[in-house]
Specification:
The chain is mainly alpha-helical. It contains four helices and two strands. The chain has a two-stranded antiparallel ribbon.
């Protein structure tokens, strides 16, 4: 589990959107969940991650546990190692 902190305009949203495959990177390299961040791997990456923004928009009433299970991930597999219940 990761969080991004920084001042306005520091690139937090752009970083999360890029790593979440919502926008394409303009340069550099990254690996997400062990998968290279390239456009053809977008679906595979999205199957392995979940993003919970500060203002969840459509997901106002969904817990992290519910959000993970909707993405096909086992919530207990992800949350037990970090003691989230």
């Amino acid at each position: 589990m990761f969080g991004f902190l920084g001042p306005n305009g520091a690139g937090k949203t752009t970083t999360v959107r890029t790593l979440g495959t919502l926008i394409a990177p303009t340069s550099g390299n990254a690996t997400v969940a062990g998968i290279p961040l390239v456009p053809e791997n977008g679906v595979d990456i999205r199957r392995k991650i979940a993003i919970m923004p500060e203002s969840p928009g459509l997901y106002l009433r969904l817990s992290v546990r519910c959000r993970r299970s909707r993405n096909g991930a086992s919530p207990d597999h992800v949350m037990e190692p970090v003691a989230i219940t």
